[in-house]
Amino acid sequence: MSDLLESPDEVDLRAGVREMLAAECPWQSVLAFVSSGGEAYDQKLWRTLGTGMGLAGLLVPEAQGGAGAQWRAAGVVVEELGRAVAPVPFLSSAVVATTALGAGGSPALLGQLASGELTAALAVPYGLWKAPRLLSVAGGVVTGTVRGVADALGAGLLLVPAEDGLYAVEGSAVRRTRVVSLDETRPLCDLEFAAAPARLVASLEAVPCALRAAATLTAAEQVGLASWCLDTTVEHLKSRYQFARPVGSFQALKHRLADLWVELTQARAVVAYAVADLASGGEDASVAASLAKIVGSEVAVRAAEECVQMHGGIGFTWEHPAHLYLKRAKATSVAYGSPDRHRARLAGLVDLPLEAS
Amino acid sequence: MSDLLESPDEVDLRAGVREMLAAECPWQSVLAFVSSGGEAYDQKLWRTLGTGMGLAGLLVPEAQGGAGAQWRAAGVVVEELGRAVAPVPFLSSAVVATTALGAGGSPALLGQLASGELTAALAVPYGLWKAPRLLSVAGGVVTGTVRGVADALGAGLLLVPAEDGLYAVEGSAVRRTRVVSLDETRPLCDLEFAAAPARLVASLEAVPCALRAAATLTAAEQVGLASWCLDTTVEHLKSRYQFARPVGSFQALKHRLADLWVELTQARAVVAYAVADLASGGEDASVAASLAKIVGSEVAVRAAEECVQMHGGIGFTWEHPAHLYLKRAKATSVAYGSPDRHRARLAGLVDLPLEAS
Amino acid sequence: MASLITEADLRDRISAFLADHDPAAAAGGGDAERLAFLRARFDAGLAWVHFPAGLGGLGAGRVLQVVADEAFAAAGAPDNRPGRIGIGLGMAAPTVLAHGTPAHHERWLRPLWTGEEVWCQLFSEPGAGSDLAGLATRARRDGDDWVVDGQKVWTSMAHVARWAILLTRTDPDVPKHAGLTYFVLDMTAPGVEVRPLRQLTGEAEFNEVYLTGVRIPDDHRLGDVGAGWKVAQTTLMNERVSIGGGALPREGGMIGVLAKAWRDDPARRTPGLHDTLMRLWVRAEAARLTGLRVRQQLAAGAPGPDGSAVKLSFATLSQQISAAELDFLGDEGLRRDSWAMSRPEEVDFTGRDAGYRYLRAKGNSIEGGTSEVLRNIIAERVLGLPAEPRVDTRVAWKDLPR
Amino acid sequence: MASLITEADLRDRISAFLADHDPAAAAGGGDAERLAFLRARFDAGLAWVHFPAGLGGLGAGRVLQVVADEAFAAAGAPDNRPGRIGIGLGMAAPTVLAHGTPAHHERWLRPLWTGEEVWCQLFSEPGAGSDLAGLATRARRDGDDWVVDGQKVWTSMAHVARWAILLTRTDPDVPKHAGLTYFVLDMTAPGVEVRPLRQLTGEAEFNEVYLTGVRIPDDHRLGDVGAGWKVAQTTLMNERVSIGGGALPREGGMIGVLAKAWRDDPARRTPGLHDTLMRLWVRAEAARLTGLRVRQQLAAGAPGPDGSAVKLSFATLSQQISAAELDFLGDEGLRRDSWAMSRPEEVDFTGRDAGYRYLRAKGNSIEGGTSEVLRNIIAERVLGLPAEPRVDTRVAWKDLPR
């Protein structure tokens, strides 16, 4: 059985990332980022995080200039980024795109990604949960469109799954249209490849693995997000008085938060299992990834919705951060397969089919 | 739009039935009935109700010795019987079997049913929700089995749907095996027809109508049942003290009961609509019946479960009536189609299919 | 008791009125024609027929209002844009009528009903939401005036309102319910500052209203000094009645949007979402039938508590249905029309995008009384369950912990 | 601090013990052989290895208990039927150890562990369920004895128990938590009457226990007079730890029954039930993984609050899963095996019929602390939310409303 507890190294990593984010990414700056609505991601924060702390290369082997760390470390980082709804392309570039390149990916490319100077995005819809639609490459150029890609707006490189492999296309060679996104902390964009020059950089082999990692680590992000919502709601309810009592002393709210805590505690265990299983090579990885994505999505949305509701009017305003979490929660619940999609997949994996076989 | 409010006559009828049941059918007698486990139904109560109050013939035309009343009146009676979990075959005999006989049924038979001296049961499984399985009649005898029929154990007559019509078979001519039933206030039994003499008494035409009425009026029963559970729980929580406070002052319980009250209020409106729609000839009757059966089943089960839980330990004992309601609630949720079955049927009726057409 | 107007009487009066005042011309003309028509309708007692004669009504039964509104609509007459002046019609008017003087009635009711003067409500404060009676906006007597300082919030229409109903604290030394006084505030008075309050949808339906040394003549007080809580009950009770809402056909509300999306897009259907859809369809239809039953109760002159069920389930359903729509739309649901800050005067649940519905619906369980407060009310007033131990009702307001 | 026994040490001791005591012979022999083996295991310190030396243990870490139990099981040794003596092992033993005298330890622990003497717990009363500290069973001092009168309820195993842990009120004139005293009661003493308590499944797992003039020597008191609440905390804390439960494989619990029913009966499958099934499967697996994580925390010597999540979700899940099974079975689920009143000593969630599971599961959110009390505990002790206003903690017990 996997070890579901955090190692001392992981505890340290979490503390370091959290401390950095507290200083560099308070919610006020995320709100300002979203309100200005122009940038693809927070570039200053990404420099600090990706390059300064070296997290861009967390999963890149040491030989290619990365940290060669385990999935478990990535899980810790993503969870903390989720707590902060940080507008940086760690998950899309340093996890999904990096994994899609796989062990056989170009060392030079991996090196660039590891440095944080280049970010890449896998050119698939954010909600993708099964094999991607493959574009056609002929004569070294790719043509076609992909809608609603996460973090592609600021990516230097787009990784395009095509019939015979994964191709790299320079971001500047693609027509990118920003989508007015439900979650503006991770804006989507539509991609239009019009005979864009493309070079083969890897086989498609690692793409399913990247999508599995994407689902699993999105769940880690959701656990972080839900934690923030629960913690923030509890603090608010301790200090907010109505009827000359702290609102947190009202039993109906206490019971709902207790239930939410139970759900979050379970999600934490499930995500720990799923990340550990990715790390161990993962014979149960598909089951674990679906499980994590379901449980993570449910707790994130519920936590964010309760956070808005229990803050009363203030939680409904633009000036309070709750909505940043609500929008991220709902968007991530779609990302890499909704709970509904993963339940259907899980049914097949654990031999509980709807139809008679 | 149907009138969803109760008429003065209906208010009077309700009061009369409730008063009678308070005197003749307190929960202690239902518990004694269930604990002894021998009888098919409470014969003394049925004499008072069916014959004494004339309710056995409520839906039988006056020409055949009945009251010629409307469905709405039957709804009132059934709701009150549900409040009392009364172990009498009103729903199965005076509603379902009587309706199945239809306008073309034998006047003599209807007269006997109206008098309350004879009870009949439609020989279909209690959970039936679509067209019944048809038995074969040849040479004036019927052979075959039907499992899990409600109130058939004490029925003088069994109405058997066969290919060419509805046949009547004397109860004594059938091998009847009592089922140890989840709801012993309405015990099921298995029927074995071994060349039992059968006579044609009606066409099959009225059977779908009977099943629709069965679903609708079961929902009325469920509303009555849920009302008892809510009322009883509220009374208990007002008088039970823990922590030197009435338990009903704890907000978490108050909120759950408020939600239950909302659900019950809605179920009441839905059932009023569905019963009125049956009465009016019912162009929307199938939609209304499915709607009522879904909403009624859900509120009954939830109310009974909350009743057990909020009574604490005492609600878990045999000596408290809560379990009578819990078992009836769960059994009626299966009766004449579970919510799941009715949602699927409804989807077809309101053009919201699962599959592309 | 004088005999009430019958429906036939009313129809006769309306016919006579329409013979004298061409509805089509009023509707097709400019603002002046429209206004002239509405004023004449008011003066004929055909505005709110259950109001007293001389104040826009005929002292008729409340039931007949539907008859009047339908008759004028059928004739193509212009209406008073009720969506825009809902607070005036639903809350201010009954309160002015019940607690105002004849001079108040004369001054305020006609322009309120015609829509010439928009009203808003200054009750909620940042520190007093569910606990409205705990509010802190202070009014101090100064000669024939009162001087008001404080901050109000969640005020829809404040930026276009001419008048406000205002609840203030005039005595902090008594328990909180006893120290309140109710005024009508001139929104153009010096010291009234209105700021838009942006909400999570990006827009600003609501405002914050800052009151700094605002003078209100004592003549604009409704009810006695210290009786503000009682006066406010009139306002709030009418709010609850009016929230019962209009009669919709099946699939008339947000569920219709989801059902249409489902029908239009077979490729997105899954068994799991179908189950959710059908559960919501059933609950929406149950809520709709409950609303119809409430209207029948009202019409029969027997209003019950069932209206609370309508408001509570509306909030839950609008949130669940809009969430299900986003789930159904998947990737496409993550696209919004705009985050621009606009100033809508009405909530448009069926015209905007799915993201708007999901976000805006979050307000339904907060505005007009949170779902939590509503559950308390149902538990205590409908079910008769005992109140929680109270720590705030016998202490002077100024000494309460906050 | 003395160095603890290592796992290797422990394994050596077990091997040596098994070389001297043939486990197979003990298991295959009669009661006498079995008992002799268990007594020897106790005396060798291999019973509960974290207990002190001389009292069945070695003062080892709690983690090592699993090692010992597995080693004995692997060798085919007879066990002490822990399902039957759970209250003794889980609650009475830690309390006797923590608050008893050496004489108490000597007298009670060995026969408790070997199962020769079954224990039960006399805490709950008809009037004191969630509010345990409000209990009314009275103990009055009389010479060297106490005389006890009262009624206890929900006592499993009382009909076969030799001893009980008993919480009584010895001083009604002080606030309720201060007036309690804790005893060990001889269940064979005159005045102890045990009556089966039939439950909604038809059976009677539990009992009511009537105490009428029952004499208990003062020597059987655990802790000081008036310190009963503190002593009871030891009992209850250990109850909560022990409820964390054993490690099950995937689909090991009630969900496995539902999954099997689903696999065995394709004709009953519907899309709606499939959605429910998968939601429950996911929640059951999440609960299982949470349980594993709790065990890892305990093994690492870092017990956290997550165990509360396990108990709470177990209750919810067992109810939802058993309800879903009935929904799946439809008509067939309405048939039960029997309503006969029997006296089962264990809950059998996987061996009985679906109706039994549905009904019995209703008790899971009541017994051992209601789900409501558990939510209060989580909210206050884990999340740190403030307590409700209390009206019962400063008043003499006798003056409390009830």
Automatic annotation (TrEMBL), chains A, B:
Keyword annotations of the record: FAD, Flavoprotein, Oxidoreductase
Cofactor: FAD
InterPro entries listed in its UniProt record: AcylCo_DH-like_C, AcylCo_DH/oxidase_C, AcylCoA_DH/ox_N, AcylCoA_DH/ox_N_sf, AcylCoA_DH/oxidase_NM_dom_sf
Record-stated family: Belongs to the acyl-CoA dehydrogenase family.
Organism: Asanoa siamensis
Domain Acyl-CoA dehydrogenase/oxidase C-terminal, first and last residues per copy: 213-347
Keyword Transmembrane attributed: no
Record's keyword annotation contains Oxidoreductase: yes
Domain Acyl-CoA dehydrogenase/oxidase N-terminal: 8-108
Name of this protein: Acyl-CoA dehydrogenase
Pfam families: Acyl-CoA_dh_1, Acyl-CoA_dh_N
PANTHER family from the UniProt entry: ACYL-COA DEHYDROGENASE, ACYL-COA DEHYDROGENASE FADE28
Automatic annotation (TrEMBL), chains C, D:
Pfam families per record: Acyl-CoA_dh_1 (PF00441), Acyl-CoA_dh_M (PF02770), Acyl-CoA_dh_N (PF02771)
Family matches, as Gene3D superfamilies: Acyl-CoA dehydrogenase/oxidase, N-terminal domain (1.10.540.10), Butyryl-CoA Dehydrogenase, subunit A, domain 2 (2.40.110.10), Butyryl-CoA Dehydrogenase, subunit A, domain 3 (1.20.140.10)
Cofactor(s) in the UniProt record: FAD
Residue ranges constituting the Acyl-CoA dehydrogenase/oxidase N-terminal domain according to the UniProt record: 8-116
Residue span, Acyl-CoA oxidase/dehydrogenase middle domain: 120-210
Entry's transmembrane regions: none
Keywords: FAD, Flavoprotein, Oxidoreductase
This protein's record includes keyword Flavoprotein: yes
Domain Acyl-CoA dehydrogenase/oxidase C-terminal: start-end pairs: 226-383
Family membership: Belongs to the acyl-CoA dehydrogenase family.
Protein name, as recorded: Acyl-CoA dehydrogenase
